[in-house]
Structures are given as C-alpha cells and as structure tokens.
Write a structure and sequence with these properties.
Family: Belongs to the binding-protein-dependent transport system permease family.
Protein name: Sugar ABC transporter permease
Oligomer: single chain
Membrane topology: Multi-pass membrane protein
Distance between the termini: 71 Å
CATH topology: MetI-like fold
Strand order of the largest sheet: 1-2
Helix content: over 70%
Number of helices: 12
Largest sheet: 2 strands, antiparallel
Subcellular location: Cell membrane
Keywords: Cell membrane, Membrane, Transmembrane, Transmembrane helix, Transport
Structural class: mainly alpha
Strand content: under 5%
Length: 313
C-alpha cells in the first residue's frame, strides 16, 4: 500500500508563519518595556520633574515658609545686577580653566606613556585608585596635608627653608589648590579614557608614518591627536561640565572663602537655597547654569567634531 503524506495547504502555512513572528516580536517588545520602565521612572522622578519644578520656581518668590508667589522675571533681573553672581561665575571659570587644562594635558601625557611603556592591569588599577575614593574624603585629606600649622606639606617646605604657604587660606592660591586636588583625583580616570582611545588607533597607521620618516612629535601631532579627537572631545565635554559643578571640595575646605575667592556658582546656589532659604532665586541661578552648560557642550561638540573620526576618511 502506498501511503501518501498529507501536505499542509500553502495558504495555511503562509497564515501561520506571521503569527509566530508576531508573537515573538510582541514578547520582545514586552521585555524591552519591562527593562525600560525602571529607568523611565527614575528619569521622570529624579530628572524631568525636578527640572520642571525648578524652572517653575525660578519665576517665583519661595522660601519654604509660604507658598510660591509668581513674580515673573524678577529673579533673573536681580541676578543680572548681582555682583556676587558675576564673581562666582568668574571664580568658576578660573577653576574650569585650571582643572580642565592641567587635567587634560597631564592625562594625555600619562596615557601616551602607558601606551608606550606598559599596559599592565596593575598599573591601570593603581592609577584608578584616587578616583575610587569619595571626593569629600580626598578633599579632607589634602586639606589636612596642606594645613598651614600642622600639614605635612608645610612642614616639609619649612624644613627646607622655603617657608609655610597658606594654600587654602590665601585668596590668590585657594582656587588653584582646589583645582589641583580635583586634578589629582580625576587624573587616572581621564588618562584611562584616553588610553582606551589610543588602543583603538590601528597600528598600521603608525607604521605608515614611520615609513614616511615622520618623527615622534610629528606622529603625535598629525596622527595621534586627529585620530583621538572623538575620545578627546568626550573627555573635554565631561570634564568641563563636571568642573562647572564643583561643590563638595569647596564645601569641606574653604566654604567659599577666603573673601569669596572660591565661591563657585554651584556653592552660591547652595547658599541662596539652604542658608538664606531663597529657593526661587536659587532656582533661577540653577536654570542659568543649566543653559550655560548646554550651550558650552553644544559649542564643544561642534568645534571638536565629536561625531566624526579621521579613520573614516
């Protein structure tokens, strides 16, 4: 007896296949939504809502003792005529220039040295150690080390006859000292980011430059820096934005002094909000800072062409 296998009609098979694909797609969509929900809630609760609330409060007179009173642009007009605000902006810019300039150059030099002489995981771990310490602890340790009367640094300077220096008490040195403390903490992290960028540069590019007879400096200037630009742009944007938000080091060392020499804009916002309870004015300051940082980041990305790489050319 010949048994003929029953063949499923083509129309039925055609109808079933999309159902399997559709079911799989629906399950993937549900899984994606499940993963996105916690992050979305965190974004809405800790970023979107505080941002909108702060924007609203910037147009009000609010001090926790009474409901917010809408006053329009009065806070912004007062800020434009506030000498403390302009001084805090100048102080912040001074810190940003020192911190970003020294940190980027030193981190780039350290990354190049690591690329040339060692790629040891132990060395990378040691370099990262300061970054793993809380910023407040780092600030306190350096504050004690540089103390005018009891600090080891001043004891060493006095021992060699150079005399003691008021690192945090001198208005001309205080902000530079704070910047160097933060350079010490973040140097390893920034260097490792740049080191990762150097690792991504193909070796044959350097070999071609050597064949052409390019020297060390010429290779660095014409090959390494252009190919490192996307990573360098990212580092600069992150470092600049982070530098504008300097707060904890100032809070535990100088408290904005001496003579407002270290009263950065973030610390001024804190003082207006939590010392004077002027939350409307502080919110207006925060909105100005947010707009300023967004503009700086956009300009940096545009000038540095952060989304382009010379490897693609």
């Amino acid at each position: 007896m010949v048994v003929t296998a029953l063949k499923e009609p083509a129309s039925l098979a055609t109808r079933r296949t999309p159902r399997v694909k559709t079911g799989r797609r629906d399950s993937q969509t549900r899984a994606a939504i499940l993963f996105l929900v916690p992050a979305s809630i965190g974004f809405l609760v800790f970023f979107a809502w505080p941002t909108l609330r702060g924007l609203y409060l910037s147009f009000t007179d609010y001090n926790l003792l009474r409901p917010p009173t809408f006053i329009g642009l009065d806070n912004y007009i007062a800020i434009a005529a506030d000498p403390v605000f302009w001084n805090s902006l100048k102080v912040t810019l001074e810190y940003v220039v020192i911190n970003v300039g020294v940190q980027t150059v030193a981190a780039l030099a350290l990354a190049v040295l690591m690329q040339r002489f060692t790629r040891s995981m132990v060395v990378r771990g040691v370099i990262m150690l300061p970054y793993l310490i809380a910023n407040v602890i780092v600030a306190l340790v350096w504050f004690w080390l540089a103390d005018y009367n009891l600090g080891l640094i001043n004891a060493a300077l006095d021992a060699v006859g150079l005399g003691k220096i008021g690192f945090f008490g001198n208005e001309d040195l205080a902000m530079g000292t704070i910047a160097m403390v933060n350079v010490w903490r973040h140097l390893g992290y920034t260097a490792l980011l740049l080191f990762a960028g150097l690792q991504a540069i193909p070796r044959d590019v350097y070999e071609a430059a050597e064949v052409d007879g390019a020297g060390e400096w010429r290779v660095f200037r014409s090959v390494t820096l252009p190919l490192l630009r996307p990573v360098l742009a990212f580092v600069l944007v992150v470092t600049v934005v982070g530098s504008f938000q300097i707060f904890d080091t100032i809070a535990v060392t100088t408290g904005g002094g001496p003579v407002d020499a270290t009263r950065a804009i973030n610390y001024y916002i804190y003082q207006r909000a939590f010392e004077r309870l002027d939350f409307g004015y502080a919110s207006a300051l925060a909105v100005i800072l947010m707009i300023l940082l967004a503009a700086i980041a956009l300009v940096q990305n545009k000038l540095l062409r952060a989304n382009e790489s010379d490897l693609e050319r």
